[in-house]
Amino acid sequence: MKLSVVIVSYKVQYYLWQCLRSVFRAAEGLDVEVWVVDNNSQDGSLEYLQQYYPSVHYIQNDENVGFSRANNQALRQATGEYVLLLNPDTVLTERTFTDCLSFLDSHPDVGAVGVKMHNPYGRFALESRRGLPTPWVSFCKMCGLTALFPKSRRFGRYYMRYLPTDEPCEIEVISGAFNMIRRNALNEIGLLDERFFMYGEDIDLSYRMLMAGWKNYFLPTPIIHYKGESTQKSSFRYVHIFYEAMLLFFDKHFSQRYFLLSVLIRLAVRARAGIDMLQRMVQKIRLRLCPPSPADNAVHMEDYRLFDSETTAYSDMIDQLTHSDHRLMLGTRNPENGTIVLPYNILSC
Question: Is 62 exposed, middle or buried (0-12, 13-18, 19+ CB in 10 A)?
């Protein structure tokens, strides 16, 4: 069986370098093709990566066409029986592909699988498993019931924290950071909806998978997701794109069935977006009035567990990070390009 890995890149050349290193480690002994679509990074990303990974299929866009459209560009050309949508700010283990492909091969009713994602500190990322943001689930999330009753099946469905994290579980939404899909299922439901520029496309894809009768599963095989390296989450543009995506999903799938609630839902989402924008504005003003000192911005290497990616297995890195009693972050040294890749920081060495 053949796997096609599709990665959309935007101004993350060093994180993508690290991601590709882990991808090729995971691909050893398997039939894997890799596609990288660059959304007009304008930082020499492809020229930089091509010297290290010449076997990758590269697509260079002359504008930022968005996440969905960029993925579809590669998906239309990919030839694998399975396809993986993968974020560039991820680190896989040597067993990631084997674990996922074996599960899909032995469960023909499963259309797609996600994995156990950890943040750079090794903590479990809640977005590894999510429920569909129906009006009720969205209400519980926005009004705080999900946070108050995180393991309740009634109030905590958004993150499904009532499910175990160490065994396969049937879920509803698979994160777009890592989504391995059966090609036959994708052909049936169609590619990503290009109306979603960024965010929401993974929810829409997962929902269409369920509506077509396929199952979505969470697998406990671990990866690291730096999360947000290619987006500016403090920007007003991020807030606008994120909440517009949520409204687009609701309008597409629920507005007719929940007509009386649609106005309230739209008002609630707009209000939440306004609150987020206000919080970011206050934060920017505070930083302007009280800028951080050089000491605050300094990189303290004692906070990191640094590995040489040339000699250390990624599975060992992630295992040590996720089982540490201390608050440590993953750092990897890449001797080929003379960089140390840290969460939210790139150092020369």
Answer: exposed
